[in-house]
Fold each of these.
Amino acid sequence: MAPLARRRAAPSVLPVPEPDLTPDELIARAAALKPLLRAQQAENDERGAYSPELHEAFLKAGLYRAVQPRMFGGYEFDIPTFYRAMLEISHGHPSAGWCLTLCASHPFLIASHWPEQAQRELFGTDGHFAAPHRVPPSGTLTPVEGGYRLTGLWDFCSGIPYATHLVCGAQLPVAGGPPQVFCVAVPRAKLRVLDDWGGDQTLGMRASGSRSVEIKGAFIPAHHAVPMQQGLFSRPEDMRDGTPGTRLHGNPMYLGRVSGPYHMSLITPVIGAAKAALDEYEDIVRTKKTNFPPITLRAEHEDFQRALGQATILTDAAENLMIRGGEVYMEICARWAADGTPITVEQNLRLWAMLQQAGRMACDAVELLFKTAGTSVTRKGSRMERYFRDVQMYRAHPSSLFENFWAPVGRAHLGLPIRHFNF
């Protein structure tokens, strides 16, 4: 019997805001916001997040609800649709795209791994849920009646300015043994968001809303915390009978084998930066002349044609690899639904590592355009300078360090234990 055939009847359903909205229409709505995103780049970088005006536009477009279950007021679109929409936002402003993507992607996580009671409470009566997920277990859980008290400080909570919740890692001390690690969903009313992002406080991704969050002694119901192994690094044997999400929603996407799709959230803004840098570069070479003879428009000189062509190819390859990564995830989930084929650790690692190459190519494209565009683009406020700074933030992200993944992929393929991650 196929795994999804074992699910029980679905409970009552919240109304979807626009039942007839299609994936293509969602993506078109995101694309239509690019002029506003471009116009607000400087002010949103200074603010440290996108504007309230853009937040309202994202709400109206349905972007926060794209991967949220229909049962709880979402559209339940597939993973490729969500990231294609986020790419349009990131094309308008990469760091605003980072902010939205890292906030709007996590209904997928909650819908996959939290029990039904928790999902009903977290998605709430109006169905609006938006939350960063800060993975490192920087908090401590103390058992109390009915749940835990949570205390901790989490930095880089990208997307927190407009979040309804924070999903964060926390440790539960265990006498005589290593601590248990949990993913905990915490409502905004229990958070203190610090003003430590925006302007010149960081090199790039200045509008990503990556502020720190402090929690002191907040009560967390027991069913709002799930083991980290279940919520992030699920083993094949843990998924034999599916997840709370597959049983509740009947959709294999909610297996929530998230490590591959998670990296799509990081590379999509970077690919958006590459597409935006191509736009800027074309404007430059069509309007500026060469510095050395023969004096001509740069667009007519082979050196600039070569750089534009190479960056275009890198960006196209990165975009298509990103979309294919989402399709691969949906395909392996569908195979599980059809015949119970598990998603292996090796598949998960290889998808993650494949997507890293898309991020790598997009960074290479931006850096090539930046270095050949001329010294004027190094001035503060230049869009090309902004895009260059933004991709350097991805270059430094621990999840982007592709060389560190080669040995784990090799070990997984050889059937050896993965020492590098908590698999």
Amino acid sequence: MKKGPQLCVIVFPLRSDAYECGQLFVTKFIQILSPLSSMITLITGNYHSNDIPVNVFIKNIYSPEVKSFHESVASKIYRLILAQITISVVLIQMRKEIDILLLFFSHGFLFIPSFLGWVLKKKIIVVTTGSFSKSTESLYSFPWGRIFYLAVRSIEKLNYSLANIITVDSDKMINELDLHKYINKISTNSPSNFLDIEKFKIKQSFSKRKNVIGYVGRLSAEKGVMELSEAIPLIISRGNQIEFLIVGDGPLRTSMEEIIEKNKCMDMVTFAGWVPYESIPDFLNKMRFHILPSHTEAIGSSNIEAIACGVIPIINNVGALPGYVVIDKSTGFVLENNLPETIVNKFDQIWMYSETDLEAIQKRGINLMLDNYTYDRVSEKWQKVLKETFEMRRG
């Protein structure tokens, strides 16, 4: 496209400046879209970056922060409604400068702005990054978990109905997110993230690494970290001089530490806490295996980065990666589920592989990942998505 469309990317307002994980994903998505569009308006909250392309304009709205996981339901609903109204005001103000509306990290929470975009006859792209409804259900105990699941699932379905295009990372996500009803709208193999191959690469050979099993990500319920915590003592008890390296922080860190301490194996487990993004490649190069036992997932960015650093991935059978990038026993290992006993049994199988077999799995994983997640490949896919959507509008 010589002149790309004018885009408006809506991200559910980030909780605070410190929420770097979300900031990072947004920044990388903007880097993909910027060369493909004439102008981008990013509507979110508390987003700050020193690396903003010249055609990107940030609209940080005011939205009161959720101060705690235990904050009242009424307070969270207030924040949700206020954010949507404020976003909608900006949409109305910017309506003449928008061709395509993209919901990113938003389609499970925002419904007023998407409905307004539909009323204003803007084309809508829903960017799926996992199942918000499933994540919500796993964060809260019954009955609130079920109630929130049903509410968020209703919002997801509304946004799928309003969308002109729904992007998914792989065909597997169609089943994962139950999108068969919207099959004519779906654009497959369209990840919203890419791998920086200059930063994420092998610095230490597989044979020189200790037998370290790692995890990189948020320490929250939807990531399956409590199941992992229950499995860790059992895996360590098998021997093989195994160590665990947990990189990240979150509301369940204390609970994880209590389980591991109770089983008297804390000396074999390192909690690195939150670390700067630029330090992640160094931590990954200490690992042989990276486990992601999530309840719900999209591509699992930490796994893509781990594979690039020569780490063998072990993932739950959810999201876009199983059978697409992580092929069981070929480019990594896939769990049948994330129950602790399943995790332990999988490692019992892994220890039977020879060093040569594991290095072959490592190499196949790197090659397959490079075929799908470099900047050029992801940019190429998004150019097709935007071109298709833009031509819908002109038609």
Amino acid sequence: MKKALPPRTRFSGKLTLVICGLCLCLIVLEIALRVSGFVLVSLQEHRNRLALQKKGAFRILCLGESTTRNQYPAFLAEALNKRSRGLTFTVIDQGLAGATTASILSRLEQNLDIYRPDMVVAMMGVNDRGKHMPYAASIPSPAALSFLRSLKTYKLISLLRLRLITAFRHPDTPEGSLSQEGELKRCIARNPCDTSCYDKLGKAYAAEGKFLQAENVFAACIASNPRGAACYAGLGGVYREQKKFPQAEEVLKKGIALEPRDTACYRELGATHRRQRAFSQAEQAFAKAVELDPHDSVSYADLAGVCGEQGNLSRAQDVLAECIKLNPNDPPCYILLAGVYRRWERLPEAEALLKKAIALSRENDIPYGKLAVIYEEAGDRAMAEECYRQANALREKTYNPDTIRNYRRLKAALSARGIRLVCVQYPIRGLDPLKKIFSGDTQGLIFVDNEHIFKEAVKQDGYKSYFIDMFGGDFGHCTEKGNRLLAENIADTIMREAFGK
């Protein structure tokens, strides 16, 4: 007779099978993650090829970042064709996750030549990094799926390209402008060893999408100041913006080797790893920046972000608490920690933190927007409306200069080709700041107002019915329901304003 195994042996065998099964699942998920980007790009390109094959169709090219790519454009053609009478619409999705207006504009002429659109729809600017760059929360929800989310399987399954990876920049970070190009060049000629003039000019070129000129400026900076960490950090940032990650890492490591106590290259190296979703390496770089400068709240915010993206929320919370302790007068960590408490439904604590951030930075619209969402969730409609109003009023005064400049460049380029531009405001945000970008020169432009339609929808069904996160402050990446609402509203506006229907 076959001898029965003792209970402990049977249990150990079953446990081994379970562990092996889990390991196999994780391997499959990681493989799926690696191919998901390729799949999504392929789907986007496939839809665009189909759009080009439709002869006689009215072509619409959609430009933007992660709120556009594989998001609302997938529903826009359907919404337009439902409303048209005899006219066929086709929609081309050229959203680019993580894109700034500069990187979008750098690809404009190529996209126009390839797709030859009759109309361009643009919703962009949230990733721009000018003087008034807001602090976007990038710490995920502390739900039971946090381990899976650290592997990014949630994003793979939902097929939503979520870019919760926003590099924080302090509001007072000096930025150059090409309106000062001549002055900055003269400054360099007078002071060839002063890195600040190179830095401003290089960033100004990068903001315009003129990456080759930016590279040349920072290369000249390095030649004149071979130990200037800001030069290496600036060049690394330009490479990162173009997704030239190996070059970025190489130049940043050189800068670190030359100036190992300077935080600039560590921060930029962390941002480069983060852009590649190499969160563990990004964490190491940001942790080093924090170690070197414990009073740099921006590095703390970056460090907390990558900890959260790995599912280590307790570590993220500790980092933010330490940031507030050492930097009680800087708002970034207050805003991020408020986001953590909101996700834990500790709304009073989140409210208090956001009010503190507002007291410290009254020109920053982001805490007002986040506070509006908290009041909305708490059922206090009057306070929510007041916070929305204040956030929109601030945006009218502090719209990002890079966004303004690149929207105007977009309009000029399209006007030269006789292509009509549709400017879409982000959900919940007011339309007036977007209109003011063009200083009254709005002839031929179509504006899509997504403020009231989304506010009413959120009031009716709740924020989470329409948004997956709140990276923009008072809005985030849309759910399918949110993207359908966005597409329907854009379609209604286009049919009414362009076709009189």
